[in-house]
Amino acid sequence: MKKTYLYTFLGIAINAAGNSLTIVTNLGSLLWPASIVNIMHAMHWSMSLSIFTEGMIVSFATILLEKHPSWKMWLDELIFLVPYSLLMQLFATGYRTVGIDQLAFMPRLAFDLLGFIISFAGLVMYSDCAWCFHPHDILSTCLKTKWNPKFMKLFNLIIPLLIIFALFFKNHTIYALHVGTIIGLLFQNRISEFFEIEYSRLLRI
Protein backbone atom coordinates (compact mmCIF):
# COMPACT_ATOMS: atom_id res chain seq x y z
CA MET A 1 0.00 0.00 0.00
CA LYS A 2 2.89 2.37 0.76
CA LYS A 3 4.20 1.79 -2.77
CA THR A 4 0.78 2.75 -4.15
CA TYR A 5 0.89 6.08 -2.33
CA LEU A 6 4.52 6.66 -3.34
CA TYR A 7 3.95 5.92 -7.03
CA THR A 8 0.71 7.94 -7.05
CA PHE A 9 2.35 11.09 -5.72
CA LEU A 10 5.39 10.50 -7.93
CA GLY A 11 3.05 10.21 -10.93
CA ILE A 12 1.25 13.41 -9.92
CA ALA A 13 4.57 15.24 -9.61
CA ILE A 14 5.82 13.96 -12.98
CA ASN A 15 2.53 14.84 -14.66
CA ALA A 16 2.61 18.33 -13.14
CA ALA A 17 6.23 18.81 -14.26
CA GLY A 18 5.29 17.94 -17.83
CA ASN A 19 2.05 19.89 -18.06
CA SER A 20 3.58 23.01 -16.55
CA LEU A 21 6.42 22.81 -19.07
CA THR A 22 3.96 22.81 -21.97
CA ILE A 23 2.22 25.83 -20.42
CA VAL A 24 5.41 27.84 -19.88
CA THR A 25 6.60 27.32 -23.47
CA ASN A 26 3.20 28.65 -24.68
CA LEU A 27 3.55 26.50 -27.81
CA GLY A 28 0.65 24.21 -27.10
CA SER A 29 -0.81 22.28 -24.18
CA LEU A 30 -3.54 19.68 -24.16
CA LEU A 31 -6.98 21.23 -24.40
CA TRP A 32 -8.10 21.22 -20.77
CA PRO A 33 -4.78 22.62 -19.43
CA ALA A 34 -4.91 25.21 -22.23
CA SER A 35 -8.42 26.26 -21.19
CA ILE A 36 -7.24 26.64 -17.58
CA VAL A 37 -4.39 28.91 -18.71
CA ASN A 38 -6.90 31.13 -20.52
CA ILE A 39 -9.11 31.19 -17.41
CA MET A 40 -6.05 32.13 -15.35
CA HIS A 41 -5.33 35.15 -17.55
CA ALA A 42 -8.98 36.19 -17.75
CA MET A 43 -9.49 36.05 -13.99
CA HIS A 44 -5.99 37.25 -13.07
CA TRP A 45 -5.58 34.27 -10.77
CA SER A 46 -2.44 32.32 -9.94
CA MET A 47 -1.93 29.03 -11.77
CA SER A 48 -2.48 26.99 -8.61
CA LEU A 49 -5.77 28.78 -7.80
CA SER A 50 -6.99 28.42 -11.41
CA ILE A 51 -6.23 24.69 -11.51
CA PHE A 52 -7.77 24.01 -8.11
CA THR A 53 -10.93 26.05 -8.73
CA GLU A 54 -11.53 24.58 -12.20
CA GLY A 55 -10.92 21.09 -10.83
CA MET A 56 -13.45 21.57 -8.04
CA ILE A 57 -16.07 22.82 -10.51
CA VAL A 58 -15.50 19.74 -12.69
CA SER A 59 -15.67 17.53 -9.61
CA PHE A 60 -19.04 18.91 -8.51
CA ALA A 61 -20.32 18.67 -12.11
CA THR A 62 -19.47 14.96 -12.05
CA ILE A 63 -21.32 14.56 -8.75
CA LEU A 64 -24.42 16.10 -10.35
CA LEU A 65 -24.17 13.69 -13.28
CA GLU A 66 -23.79 10.63 -11.09
CA LYS A 67 -26.98 8.98 -9.85
CA HIS A 68 -25.18 7.78 -6.74
CA PRO A 69 -22.34 10.22 -6.10
CA SER A 70 -19.41 8.98 -4.06
CA TRP A 71 -18.08 11.47 -1.54
CA LYS A 72 -15.05 9.21 -1.08
CA MET A 73 -14.24 9.73 -4.76
CA TRP A 74 -14.62 13.49 -4.25
CA LEU A 75 -12.16 13.29 -1.36
CA ASP A 76 -9.74 11.31 -3.56
CA GLU A 77 -9.99 14.05 -6.22
CA LEU A 78 -9.22 16.63 -3.53
CA ILE A 79 -6.17 14.61 -2.48
CA PHE A 80 -5.04 14.77 -6.11
CA LEU A 81 -5.80 18.44 -6.72
CA VAL A 82 -4.02 19.96 -3.73
CA PRO A 83 -0.48 18.72 -4.50
CA TYR A 84 -1.07 18.88 -8.26
CA SER A 85 -2.10 22.56 -8.31
CA LEU A 86 0.75 23.55 -5.99
CA LEU A 87 3.33 21.57 -7.97
CA MET A 88 2.12 23.05 -11.26
CA GLN A 89 2.77 26.54 -9.85
CA LEU A 90 6.13 25.50 -8.41
CA PHE A 91 7.40 23.91 -11.61
CA ALA A 92 6.15 26.78 -13.79
CA THR A 93 7.95 29.30 -11.59
CA GLY A 94 11.12 27.24 -11.81
CA TYR A 95 10.96 26.97 -15.60
CA ARG A 96 10.45 30.72 -15.94
CA THR A 97 13.30 31.41 -13.52
CA VAL A 98 15.76 29.54 -15.76
CA GLY A 99 14.34 31.34 -18.82
CA ILE A 100 12.62 28.56 -20.74
CA ASP A 101 9.78 30.93 -21.65
CA GLN A 102 12.30 33.33 -23.23
CA LEU A 103 13.96 30.83 -25.57
CA ALA A 104 13.69 30.95 -29.36
CA PHE A 105 10.88 29.08 -31.11
CA MET A 106 12.64 25.78 -31.85
CA PRO A 107 14.14 25.22 -28.36
CA ARG A 108 10.77 26.10 -26.82
CA LEU A 109 9.05 23.65 -29.16
CA ALA A 110 11.51 20.94 -28.13
CA PHE A 111 10.76 21.64 -24.45
CA ASP A 112 7.04 21.67 -25.24
CA LEU A 113 7.19 18.20 -26.79
CA LEU A 114 9.35 16.99 -23.90
CA GLY A 115 6.66 18.29 -21.57
CA PHE A 116 4.05 16.14 -23.29
CA ILE A 117 6.22 13.03 -22.94
CA ILE A 118 6.84 13.72 -19.25
CA SER A 119 3.16 14.43 -18.54
CA PHE A 120 2.00 11.23 -20.26
CA ALA A 121 4.53 9.24 -18.22
CA GLY A 122 3.11 10.70 -15.01
CA LEU A 123 -0.47 10.10 -16.14
CA VAL A 124 0.23 6.42 -16.76
CA MET A 125 1.95 6.06 -13.38
CA TYR A 126 -0.81 7.53 -11.21
CA SER A 127 -3.57 5.94 -13.33
CA ASP A 128 -2.06 2.49 -12.89
CA CYS A 129 -2.06 2.97 -9.11
CA ALA A 130 -5.83 3.64 -9.28
CA TRP A 131 -5.92 5.46 -5.94
CA CYS A 132 -6.78 9.08 -6.72
CA PHE A 133 -7.42 10.85 -10.01
CA HIS A 134 -7.72 14.30 -11.54
CA PRO A 135 -11.39 15.40 -11.70
CA HIS A 136 -11.21 15.38 -15.51
CA ASP A 137 -10.27 11.68 -15.42
CA ILE A 138 -13.34 10.93 -13.30
CA LEU A 139 -15.60 13.09 -15.50
CA SER A 140 -14.37 11.29 -18.62
CA THR A 141 -15.14 7.91 -17.03
CA CYS A 142 -18.60 9.16 -16.06
CA LEU A 143 -19.35 10.44 -19.58
CA LYS A 144 -18.10 7.23 -21.14
CA THR A 145 -20.32 5.16 -18.83
CA LYS A 146 -23.47 7.29 -19.10
CA TRP A 147 -23.22 7.82 -22.85
CA ASN A 148 -20.35 6.38 -24.92
CA PRO A 149 -16.62 6.87 -25.64
CA LYS A 150 -17.37 8.97 -28.74
CA PHE A 151 -19.45 11.45 -26.74
CA MET A 152 -16.71 11.61 -24.10
CA LYS A 153 -14.07 12.42 -26.72
CA LEU A 154 -16.26 15.09 -28.35
CA PHE A 155 -16.98 16.65 -24.96
CA ASN A 156 -13.28 16.81 -24.06
CA LEU A 157 -12.57 18.37 -27.45
CA ILE A 158 -15.41 20.86 -27.82
CA ILE A 159 -15.94 22.21 -24.28
CA PRO A 160 -12.34 23.38 -23.61
CA LEU A 161 -12.21 24.93 -27.09
CA LEU A 162 -15.44 26.82 -26.40
CA ILE A 163 -13.98 28.09 -23.13
CA ILE A 164 -10.77 29.20 -24.85
CA PHE A 165 -12.53 31.01 -27.69
CA ALA A 166 -15.12 32.60 -25.38
CA LEU A 167 -12.32 34.00 -23.21
CA PHE A 168 -10.59 35.40 -26.29
CA PHE A 169 -12.97 38.37 -26.11
CA LYS A 170 -11.64 39.18 -22.64
CA ASN A 171 -7.98 38.18 -23.08
CA HIS A 172 -7.71 39.44 -26.69
CA THR A 173 -5.29 36.57 -27.28
CA ILE A 174 -5.23 32.79 -26.99
CA TYR A 175 -2.80 31.13 -24.61
CA ALA A 176 -1.34 27.61 -24.67
CA LEU A 177 -3.08 26.61 -27.91
CA HIS A 178 -0.49 26.12 -30.63
CA VAL A 179 1.23 23.54 -32.83
CA GLY A 180 2.18 21.51 -29.76
CA THR A 181 -1.51 20.95 -28.99
CA ILE A 182 -2.01 19.17 -32.31
CA ILE A 183 1.13 17.07 -31.88
CA GLY A 184 0.15 16.16 -28.32
CA LEU A 185 -3.35 15.07 -29.35
CA LEU A 186 -2.03 13.01 -32.26
CA PHE A 187 0.58 11.11 -30.24
CA GLN A 188 -0.98 10.95 -26.77
CA ASN A 189 -2.28 7.40 -27.13
CA ARG A 190 0.92 6.02 -28.65
CA ILE A 191 3.18 7.59 -26.04
CA SER A 192 0.86 6.54 -23.20
CA GLU A 193 0.79 2.95 -24.50
CA PHE A 194 4.60 2.92 -24.55
CA PHE A 195 4.78 4.05 -20.92
CA GLU A 196 2.09 1.55 -19.90
CA ILE A 197 4.28 -1.27 -21.25
CA GLU A 198 7.44 0.09 -19.64
CA TYR A 199 5.73 0.75 -16.32
CA SER A 200 4.38 -2.82 -16.26
CA ARG A 201 7.90 -4.12 -16.85
CA LEU A 202 9.21 -1.93 -14.02
CA LEU A 203 6.70 -3.36 -11.59
CA ARG A 204 7.77 -6.92 -12.49
CA ILE A 205 11.44 -6.22 -11.69
TrEMBL record:
Keywords: Membrane, Transmembrane, Transmembrane helix
Record bears the keyword Transmembrane: yes
Pfam family, one: DUF6198
TM region(s), chain numbering: 7-32, 44-66, 78-98, 110-133, 154-169
The name this protein goes by in its record: Sugar specific permease (Putative)
Source species of the chain: Lactobacillus xujianguonis
Taxonomic lineage of the native organism: Bacteria, Bacillati, Bacillota, Bacilli, Lactobacillales
